[in-house]
Amino acid sequence: MIKFAGLSVQEIVQTYSDTLIRIAVQQTKNMAEAEDIVQEVYMTLMRQNKPFAHEAHLKAWLIKVTFNKCKDYFKSSRVKKTVPITDEMAFIAKEEQMVLTEIFELPSEERVIVYLHYYEGYTTAEIADLLEINVNTVGSKLRRARMKLKTILEEGSKV
């Protein structure tokens, strides 16, 4: 049986599928495409010859590959009109969905950083490493995103 960081493929799928699907849906705004992307991530993992030092390294690798597959998706001809996100994300709790709707109004780069920081619990340094950008850039984008979200949420509550 093949193991990565001490976990079987089945354990990896059970542990990380929800996270990877959420990232892919958050990026593509399309559940079917997100599922395809996550399947491609697992196929890439199966072809991987590189050992993972520990489970945190494996998780970071899976997330990074998911983001890269999402970028590839937008470069491909598969991009179609998307279905409204609220219809696609029934597996997310209602209170989480409310904020996710506002997060989807952010530009893609800020959306990714907000998701990784608040939903996955990564620090700005870890996000910088995952996305291969400067840690100060991550901090700036996170601050900008917070200000935009505050404005979006305040305007939404006045309606």
Automatic annotation (TrEMBL):
HTH luxR-type domain boundaries: 121-148
Annotated PROSITE patterns: HTH_LUXR_1 (PS00622)
Record's keyword terms, sorted: Sigma factor, Transcription, Transcription regulation
Keyword Transport in annotation: no
Family per similarity comment: Belongs to the sigma-70 factor family. ECF subfamily.
Protein name as catalogued: RNA polymerase sigma factor
Species this protein is from: Lysinibacillus capsici
